[in-house]
Each structure stands twice: as C-alpha cells, then as structure tokens.
Amino acid sequence: MLNVQRMSTEDGPGIRSTVFVKGCTLACRWCHNPESISHEPELVWQEWRCVGCGSCEGVCEHGALEHAPSGILIDRSKCQACGACARACPAGALELLGTPRRADALVAELAHDRPFFECSGGGVTLSGGEPALRPAFAEAFCLQCREAGLHVAVDTCGAGPAEAVERSCRHADLVLYDLKEIDPERHRAFTGRGNAGVLENARRLAERARPGAIWIRTPLIPGATARPDNLEGLGAFIAGELGEAVGRWELLAFNKLCAEQYRRLGREWAFADATLLESGEIEGLRRAAARGGVAAERIFCTGATR
C-alpha cells in the first residue's frame, strides 16, 4: 500500500478516505500518481523535512545515499529499498513508498473516519495503481468495509484479466472506471497497452451492475486524450454499450500537481511543459462527449482551468 488520503472529495461522493495501492497494469505517460506505477517499494527524499544530520548515510549498506550541497542524492541503481535510512531519519525526510497492510487492520483504521462519511454521504475508495492487481485483497477489503457499514468504491483502469477486475469490484458499492482513449493504437501509445480488454471489462461490469453503480472517469490530457473525436467516440461507447449502469461521466481536467513527485523519483515527465486547458476548451470537449449519446446532465467537468 502507498498511503491513505483523507478528506478527499474527488474519488466518489461525499468526503472520502482514499487508499492507494502500489503497482499498475498501465504506464500512462501522463500518470498523476507516478509512485504507484511500480510494484516495488521506492525511496523518496522530502527536502523540506531534512535537518542535514547525515543519519541516513551512516546506515545505508549499499552506498546509495550521498549528502551533497543540494541535499540527499539517491543512487537508484544501488538502492535496494530496504527502508533502513527511512527508519533512521529523525525528521521523516526519507520515506519508503510501499508497505504491506492487512485488509482487516486497514478497515478498522478507516472506521474512525465514519463521522466524516456520515455527515457528507461519503466513504472509502480503493484506488491505485490498480486494485485488480491484488484481487483477493480488494475483494476482502471491500467486503469488510460493507460489513462495517462503510460505503466503498473501487477505482480501476479496467486493464487486466476479466476475473481479476470483476473480483476486485464484486463487493463495491460504486465502481469508478477509467476510460481514457477510444482509439486502440493511441491507447497503446499513451498507456503501453491496447484498450480491447479495458472496453470488454467495462461491458462485463455493466451487465451485472445496478443502475448508476458505475462512474466513468476520463482524464483530459492536452495533446493526448483531450480531443473532440476521442470524447465523442467514448460517449458513443458509453451510451451504446454501458447504458443505465453509468450514473455519471467525469471529465478530469489536466493538472501539474504531480510534477514534484516525478522529480523526487528521479524521472522525466512527458507532460512537464503542457499547460492547463482553457475553460472554453473544456466546454467544447463536454459538448463533444454529449454528441456521443450520453445525456448532458450526466457529464461533469472537474479540475482547474486557465
């Protein structure tokens, strides 16, 4: 597991506590949670917490850390993500992303957030990464949330074996399903994988879902998914193949909040120079989405514009 983000208002209805798991079946070039792509634990340094004591260097047995004038440098070719440096850091400046958690212990912890859920119609969301990579955990987690009286949603990209996707969503009250790109070749170019399985898994979930139990989410990425033809094509698929199972379609405006995390992970971000979309562009894409056949009142645009 990566972390729990509390007081979230963007991962389903009401105020929510979102659990992020590590590892994803896609590698989207625009990914806004780059720390969730890899299955393996990863070390990051947060400079604003560092007191420059050098404790981390002293415990690293692999020589992966260097205390330079600019701060702590991590040699990722040497780092084994053992966590010794993070445990030794008195200020919490070094953090190991990715720790094992039991479903029952996690649900018990999240139950303390119940007052926020009850006053807002919120609950818990299991996100990622991709929950379907750990279908047994996802199934147990969702079932235990429901048994505890907590509304639970699963956020999935739908890329993976049908059985794993269905199992991870089986006990969810709500499924947040990502549909990014209707063209299969562009989908492969942007995410590393074609979309045939993604579309088929969406159909399978919709066949078994209650009316309104699926919310579709589409990121509007400049130069990639934010195209009228893509939104119109996705709209035609949603209206023609998923029907009344879809209660809401969210168009998520591109943002740059993840840029710092790419830097901390030592990675280049393909969309570092992209700019936010203008409000007029967002509205044009919403109209294109509605032309595909989805009722306009079920299409919602979220996020910042310029």
> CATH top level of the largest domain?
Alpha Beta
* Radius of gyration (Å): 20 Å
Helicity range:
25-40%
Can you identify the CATH superfamily of the largest domain?
Aldolase class I
Strand percentage: 15-25%
CATH topology of the largest domain: TIM Barrel
Number of domains: 2
Structural class: alpha/beta
Unreliable stretches (pLDDT < 50, length at least 5) are none
Write down the overall mean pLDDT: 96
Considering the chains and any ligands shown, give keywords for the structure:
11 helices, 8-stranded mixed beta sheet, globular, TIM Barrel, Alpha-Beta Plaits, two-stranded antiparallel ribbon, 2 domains, 306 residues, alpha/beta
What can you tell me about this protein's structure?
The chain has 306 residues and is α/β, with parallel strands linked by helices. It folds into 2 domains: 3-38 and 99-302, Aldolase class I (TIM Barrel, Alpha-Beta Barrel); 42-97, Alpha-Beta Plaits (2-Layer Sandwich), CATH 3.30.70. It is 33% helix and 20% strand. It is built from 11 helices and 12 strands. The chain has helices at residues 55-59, 84-88, 103-110, 114-120, 135-147, 162-169, 184-191, 196-208, 228-242, 259-264, 279-291; strands at 3-8, 16-20, 42-45, 65-68, 71-74, 94-97, 123-127, 152-156, 174-178, 214-220, 246-253, 299-302. The strands form 3 sheets. An 8-stranded mixed beta sheet has the order 1-2-7-8-9-10-11-12. Strands 3-6 form a two-stranded antiparallel ribbon. α9 links the parallel β10 (214-220) and β11. It is globular, with a radius of gyration of 20 Å. The two termini are 34 Å apart. The mean pLDDT is 96.
